[in-house]
Amino acid sequence: MREAAKESKREKIMEAAIQVFSKKGYHQTRMEEIAVAAGIGKGTIYEYFDSKLQLVQHIMETSLLMYYEAMGDEERSRLSFEDRIRIMIMGHFRFCQQNKALTRILFWDTEIIDEELKDWSYQIRREKEEKMRSIVEEAMQKGEIRQADPYLVTQIFLGVMGSMLVPVILEDQEFDVAQVAQEITDLLMYGLK
């Protein structure tokens, strides 16, 4: 019971931090503001996190697991490339729409937070690229898509997903995730012709 209460408080701190970070940015946020938003004393935060950097790292690690889960993974490896792409795009957009404040921190603010966090975020991006590249190469080997530079195909795919962050985060646009995912998949698979 005590461990559950501790975990609940940790989550409460993280949720408050996400809201404050997304409104004020990492550098402008003080731990006291997070404590107020969480309804706890400032000292309590330090029982869970040694520093603001450690807090934001924990938020990012936890949320990236949620993000990858939302995008789908190994259980979809038997699906066609087209279906996998569509499901990944849907998962990406659903996650971003349902977690706008978190998405702003994860995909928008990481590089300006801290050099250590910048390196960590770059490593996560490389892992995502490598995973996507292996999916692309597998699809080429199976003849599902034509032969092309796997690196370029991967960058285009990730670029399309990244470019949609602006309408979701900055412009607060709502859209039918399934429909947009299908249209993007069609464009990626069949081009503009």
List the helices and strands and how they pair.
Elements: H1 2-24, H2 31-38, H3 42-48, H4 52-71, H5 81-98, H6 100-113, H7 115-141, H8 150-163, H9 165-170, H10 177-190
Helix pairs in contact: 1-2, 1-6, 2-3, 4-5, 4-6, 5-10, 6-7, 7-8
Task: Describe the overall structure.
- With 193 residues, this protein is an all-alpha fold.
- It folds into two domains: 1-49, Arc Repressor Mutant, subunit A (Orthogonal Bundle), CATH 1.10.10; 63-190, Tetracycline Repressor, domain 2 (Orthogonal Bundle).
- It is 78% helix and 0% strand.
- The longest helix is centred in the middle third of the chain and has 27 residues, at 115-141.
- The model has no long low-confidence stretch (mean pLDDT 85).
Key structural traits:
single chain; 193 residues; 2 domains; 10 helices; 78% helix
Low-pLDDT segments: none
Overall mean confidence score, pLDDT: 85
The rounded distance between the terminal residues' Cα atoms is 60 Å
**What form results from the Cα inertia axes?**
elongated
How many DSSP-defined strands?
0
Number of domains: 2
Query: Might you state the CATH topology name of the largest domain?
Result: Tetracycline Repressor, domain 2
Quickly give the CATH architecture of the largest domain: Orthogonal Bundle
One letter per element, helices H and strands E, the order comes to HHHHHHHHHH
Work out the strand percent. under 5%
Category from helices, strands and their pairing: mainly alpha
The count of helical stretches stands at: 10
Largest sheet: none
Question: Roughly what percent helix?
Answer: over 70%
CATH class designation of the largest domain: Mainly Alpha
